[in-house]
Design a protein that fits this description.
Blueprint: E1 3-4, E2 10-11, H1 29-38, E3 40-42, H2 53-56, E4 86-88, E5 109-111, E6 132-134, E7 155-157, E8 178-180, E9 201-203, E10 224-226, E11 247-249, E12 269-271, H3 282-286, E13 293-295, E14 316-318, E15 339-341, H4 352-357
Parallel strand pairs: 3-4, 4-5, 5-6, 6-7, 7-8, 8-9, 9-10, 10-11, 11-12, 12-13, 13-14, 14-15
Antiparallel strand pairs: 1-2
Length: 358
């Protein structure tokens, strides 16, 4: 059996791997008292296999001693407590989460990352003020419907699960600004992801995505898009409609060509390394005049056009491990260029005027 330490936490006897948390007494009353006062409760890293009842009854099981009122009014007024707005249960051993979550209807932040959750309570869908939900590093195989009912969400973190499909109802989250689906088993993205017009950051890296729906071009607020380490053979032309896109990562895919990013006038970083790209044309470069970082390493480029000089603000250029026998002299005209990486190309020499320009 576990014995009690001075601060109310269970002390493990030798030979026992987990504390008993089912009696609800492992959370010290002082922590619960502070939560009622601040509206925030952090119970991360406590090896909980279930959430103690004392947490769910935070506002109903107030200890009698907490209700004593001192004559000088120095004690906290238990009847004037703050509603819980932030609940952190990260880095525990939770397999399920109780529907009692509905007791905290004022939650704006719910952090459940690094647990063993295979499902989520339907109560999440009723948290009408919830703005941030972190369920990364769990064991979810699908995105529960209740999540797409929490329509006030601005940040949804799903990374490092086993999710193979995101349903079209993700489009209901019209307030979403940050979506992280990285390190899952996704084969595609839903068409209604295009309804997320306020989304500014989308990380879908380290999946098995084979295609993108053309509707991605409707995510007009998108600034950061990471598709690194997927199975993409092509990109939709509609990607070029992302007016505010600043960073695009599509490294480690199977791209032989890229679309014209014709309206991406704010693009600063374009990472195309580790693909099968054979050509970059003047038409491509005319759309990339705002780019400062261009990564084309580990492709199959045999020619770089003179029009590379159109990238007047280019600072870093990585052309390593391609098939380039030489470089255009116009590269030396880019006065902003600070770094150029050329290792692994069949070049005998590099023009002196290019070197002098760096």
């Amino acid at each position: 059996m576990a014995s009690r330490g001075r601060r109310g936490r269970p002390q493990l006897n030798p030979g026992f791997g987990k504390p008993d948390t089912k009696d609800g007494t492992t959370v010290h009353p002082t922590i619960l008292k502070q939560a009622r006062k601040s509206g925030q409760l952090n119970l991360s890293g406590r090896s909980f296999t279930s959430v103690p009842d004392s947490v769910w009854n935070l506002y109903t099981d107030v200890p009698e001693e907490s209700k004593d009122v001192s004559l000088d009014n120095s004690e906290d007024r238990w009847w004037d407590s703050a509603e819980l707005t932030k609940l952190i249960l990260a880095s525990n051993w939770l397999v399920t989460l109780s529907e009692n979550l509905a007791n905290f209807g004022a939650l704006t932040v719910l952090d459940l990352h690094d647990n063993r959750l295979e499902s989520l309570p339907k109560a999440i869908g009723g948290l009408k003020y919830l703005q941030k939900l972190d369920v990364s590093r769990n064991k979810l195989y699908e995105l529960p419907e209740c999540v797409t009912e929490a329509v006030s969400l601005r940040t949804l973190l799903l990374a490092h699960n086993q999710i193979s499909r995101i349903e079209e109802r993700i489009g209901n989250l019209s307030n979403l600004e940050h979506l992280d689906t990285s390190d899952n088993q996704l084969l595609s993205l839903p068409r209604r992801i295009g309804h997320l017009s306020r989304l500014s950051k989308l990380n879908a890296s380290n999946n098995k995505i084979q295609r993108l729906p053309p509707e991605v071009g409707s995510m007009f607020g998108l600034r950061y898009f990471d598709l690194t380490h997927n199975d993409l053979g092509e990109l939709p032309n509609e990607l070029g409609q992302l007016l505010y896109l600043e960073q695009l990562y599509v490294r480690h895919n199977h791209l032989a060509d890229i679309p014209l990013l014709s309206q991406c006038s704010k693009l600063k970083e374009l990472h195309l390394g580790n693909n099968r790209i054979q050509r970059i044309t003047t038409e491509h470069l005319e759309c990339l005049k705002s780019v400062t970082v261009l990564d084309l390493r580990d492709n199959q480029l045999a020619f770089l056009p003179d029009s590379i000089s159109l990238l007047e603000g280019l600072e870093r250029l990585d052309l390593s491990n391609n098939d380039l026998p030489g470089l255009p002299f116009t590269l030396g005209l880019i006065v902003s260029l600070k770094s150029i990486v050329l290792d692994g190309n069949p070049m005998k020499s590099i023009r002196r005027d290019i070197i002098m320009g760096l």
